[in-house]
């Protein structure tokens, strides 16, 4: 299967169920194989969730109209929702003949017609799920809690539920979910919508409330414990909906990293932005998320890397989630990257410009011609280079609109931001109206920061919020972050190419050389680990493994002085600290003495050796660390950073999840705080970054091909030589799975 090159859907283990569930199989990437070399899928089918959000028949299992019962309120809400979406509601409860005047059925088997959706208001959903599976129902929602979020017993119960669903064509939302999918959405709002995904329903409330500010929402998927349907399924579905302008998500734990990457890839290819809060940046947050959703949160650094690779915009607060999602949903792609700040006050403009510049927003200096034009309406003594300070008075008359139109007409300007720190009628009222009117006549982004804490002013509530073109914020910080996300997103999708398109489908010849070196559950010696590197074409120093002093002297002559001598054994990780490394040896006598000392230390320390390595000494270059590890959610990962002791002191590393290409490997290097060292500092020559990238890509291939047997590999240090001279792995550690 690893070497498969056909494009049949049947090679995907989920495909039979996907077809049975009526899912739309996504086309294979450029007609290539369905799996990469590690046996992981290269695409995922899109669940056909139309019948979930717009069913024709809805059964409420456990329906009630008894006063004071929790199920009664839920039944009433579902009846109202079914009426809105045009669905027939079928109550099911063996203890009742009617519910709210509707005939009530005793069991699923007694229902008069096939089901699109069943809502389970029962404590134990497993027996009902089995009945629904037999009845060929399409979707079900399990509200019950007490599953994986409660511990081992609950996790076992959830596993039984998931297995029952897997054996059927039924798709299940939950358990431990709520009614958010069946909320009343405003249908009087126009334009692209936000689709919302949350694992905690309450955390989605602020985004849902955006409708009261005129922002359209189209869907809400409360995924709960994700025993079956997960956030990735809804991302894939929403990314295919023409009405969805942005996806907003509150994620506590990912069910499967690969599924998330495939869904995010689909969104990136369709140019649909994903804005997400991901809980688990800290140990406390990760622990709390696990107790809430019952899933692994995974390494946050790996999650962050996957987000970057697929253009997912990560935010920290619910207010940021609202503001960034609404901007990305509503704004058209920028015609230019330039941001101009326009204000009544020079102090306001300077303050906002400082924040914008610190965030990396491009604030171009307006041309001399444009400045002269603006000075027709703005006094000469005021700065109009960017930020543009109008001094206040021009906004109160006909000049205000002229200024705004002139700025927006500049081809270098893609975004106009007007921070209004407080209401100052009539000036602020006139300014707000001019901005709204100008926004109606341009495709460029117009943003306003309304800084008044009151928020009841007519200029804000009616004029600004009444506009479908102007994007209004309440804080400088959220405005800056949202604009940056907007520009970054469109820059990202403009050049995006799916990494799954170029992922290797067939095993390389290196695998045949590498696999015999791996020992299940064992740590390899440095010598064996370097053999593994050689199998993948990664350069190591000239060296020989010897078992006698005389052999060491002969090897030193072949390798060439000066040399390094190191003990090599399967359980030696920190050889320098143990005194098992000697450097700069220049004579046969030093070699004999070093051999004796190294073997004595090993004998007294009871260290088992496979020999002594006599190595070429490589001195000039930049020490880096490159490694492979296995993440429980995302699988194999590749890390690069400053090497030697600096990796432990500075922790200056970047990580990526395969598959990725050379461009992403270069991006990893640019993320490092120590990147200037590779460019050459204090007279040092620039390092061979192309050789470093080549090593990263070779390790990526190794990580994918040996994922079932390689748990961890570290090259530290990898000496990156001056440009054009390559890179050499001076030490290596490998642990087998």
Topology:
Blueprint: H1 15-20, H2 50-53, E1 57-61, H3 70-85, E2 88-92, E3 98-99, E4 102-103, E5 117-120, H4 126-134, E6 139-142, H5 152-166, E7 171-173, E8 193-198, H6 205-208, E9 217-222, H7 231-238, E10 244-251, H8 257-269, E11 274-278, H9 283-293, H10 300-309, E12 313-314, H11 318-330, E13 338-343, H12 346-358, H13 368-374, E14 388-389, H14 399-408, E15 413-420, H15 427-439, E16 445-450, H16 458-464, E17 471-473, H17 476-494, H18 510-514, E18 523-524, H19 526-535, E19 543-546, H20 549-559, E20 563-568, E21 581-585, H21 588-604, E22 611-616, E23 622-631, E24 635-642, H22 646-650, E25 653-656, H23 662-671, H24 675-679, H25 689-705, E26 710-720, E27 727-729, E28 732-736
Folded structure, characterized:
- The chain is of the alpha/beta class.
- 35% of the residues lie in helices and 19% in strands.
- It has 25 helices and 28 strands.
- α11 (318-330) packs across α17 and α14 runs parallel beside α15.
- The protein is flat.
- The two termini are 21 Å apart.
- This is Acetate--CoA ligase family protein.
- InterPro entries: Acyl-CoA_Synth/Transferase, ATP-grasp, ATP_grasp_subdomain_1, CoA-bd, NAD(P)-bd_dom_sf, Succ_CoA_lig_flav_dom, Succinyl-CoA_synth-like.
């Amino acid at each position: 299967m690893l070497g498969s090159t056909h494009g049949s859907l049947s090679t995907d283990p989920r495909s039979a169920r996907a077809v049975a569930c009526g899912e739309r199989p996504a086309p294979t990437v450029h007609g290539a194989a369905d799996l990469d070399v590690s046996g992981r899928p290269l695409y995922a089918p899109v669940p056909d969730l139309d019948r979930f959000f717009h069913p024709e028949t809805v059964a409420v299992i456990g329906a009630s109209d008894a006063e004071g019962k929790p199920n009664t309120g839920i039944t009433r809400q579902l009846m109202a929702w079914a009426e809105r979406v045009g669905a027939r509601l079928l109550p099911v409860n063996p203890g009742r003949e009617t519910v709210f005047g509707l005939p009530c059925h005793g069991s699923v088997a007694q229902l008069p017609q096939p089901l699109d959706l069943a809502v389970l208001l029962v404590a134990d959903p497993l027996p009902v799920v089995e009945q629904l599976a037999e009845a060929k129902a399409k979707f079900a929602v399990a509200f019950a809690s007490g599953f994986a979020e409660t511990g081992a017993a609950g996790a076992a119960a959830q596993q039984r539920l998931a297995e029952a669903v897997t054996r059927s064509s039924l798709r299940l939302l939950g358990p431990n979910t709520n009614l958010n999918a069946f909320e009343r959405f405003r249908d009087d709002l126009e334009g692209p919508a936000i689709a919302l995904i949350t694992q905690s329903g309450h955390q989605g409330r602020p985004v849902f409330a955006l409708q009261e500010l005129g922002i359209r929402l189209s869907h809400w998927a409360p995924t709960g414990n994700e025993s079956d349907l997960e956030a990735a399924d809804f991302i894939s579905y929403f990314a295919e909906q023409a009405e969805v302008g942005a996806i907003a998500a509150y994620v506590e734990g990912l069910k499967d990293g690969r599924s998330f990457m495939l869904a995010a890839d689909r969104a990136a290819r369709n140019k649909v932005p994903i804005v997400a809060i991901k809980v688990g940046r800290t140990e406390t947050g990760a622990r709390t998320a696990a107790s809430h959703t019952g899933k692994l949160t995974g390494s946050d650094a790996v999650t962050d890397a996957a987000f970057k690779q697929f253009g997912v915009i990560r935010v920290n607060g619910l207010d940021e989630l609202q503001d960034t999602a609404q901007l990305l949903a509503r704004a058209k792609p920028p015609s230019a990257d330039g941001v101009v700040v326009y204000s009544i006050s020079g102090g306001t403009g300077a303050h906002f410009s400082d924040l914008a510049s610190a965030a990396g927003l491009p604030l171009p200096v307006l041309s001399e011609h444009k400045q002269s034009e603006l000075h027709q309406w703005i006094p000469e003594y005021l700065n109009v280079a960017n930020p543009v300070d109008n001094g206040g008075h021009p906004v109160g008359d006909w000049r205000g609109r002229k200024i705004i139109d002139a700025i927006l007409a500049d081809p270098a300007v893609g975004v106009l931001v007007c921070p209004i720190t407080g209401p100052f009628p009539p000036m602020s009222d006139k300014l707000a109206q001019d901005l709204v009117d100008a926004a109606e006549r341009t495709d460029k982004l117009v943003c306003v920061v309304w800084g008044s804490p009151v928020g009841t002013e007519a200029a804000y509530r009616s004029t600004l919020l009444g506009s479908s073109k102007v994007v209004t914020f309440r804080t400088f910080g959220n405005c800056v972050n949202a604009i940056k996300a907007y520009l970054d997103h469109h820059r990202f999708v403009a050049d995006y190419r799916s990494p799954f398109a170029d992922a290797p489908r067939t095993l390389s010849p290196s695998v045949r050389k590498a696999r015999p070196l791996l020992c299940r559950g064992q740590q390899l010696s440095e010598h064996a680990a370097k053999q593994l590197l050689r199998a993948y074409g990664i350069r190591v120093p000239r060296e020989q493994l010897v078992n006698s002093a005389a052999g060491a002297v002969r090897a030193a002559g072949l390798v060439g002085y000066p040399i390094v001598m190191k003990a090599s054994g399967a359980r030696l990780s920190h050889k320098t600290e143990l005194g098992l490394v000697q450097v700069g040896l220049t004579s046969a006598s030093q070699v004999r003495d070093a051999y004796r000392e190294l073997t004595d230390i090993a004998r007294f320390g009871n260290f088992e050796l496979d020999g002594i390595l006599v190595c070429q000494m490589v001195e000039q270059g930049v020490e880096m660390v490159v490694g492979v590890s296995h993440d429980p959610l995302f699988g194999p990962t590749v890390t690069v950073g400053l090497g030697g002791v600096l990796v432990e002191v500075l922790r200056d590393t970047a990580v990526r999840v395969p598959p990725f290409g050379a461009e992403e490997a270069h991006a990893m290097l640019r993320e490092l705080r120590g990147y200037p060292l590779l460019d050459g500092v204090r007279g040092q020559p620039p390092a061979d970054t192309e050789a470093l990238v080549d090593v990263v890509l070779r390790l990526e291939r190794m990580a994918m091909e040996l994922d079932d047997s390689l748990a961890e590999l570290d090259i530290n240090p990898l000496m990156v030589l001056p440009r054009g001279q390559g890179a050499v792995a001076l030490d290596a550690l490998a642990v087998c799975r």
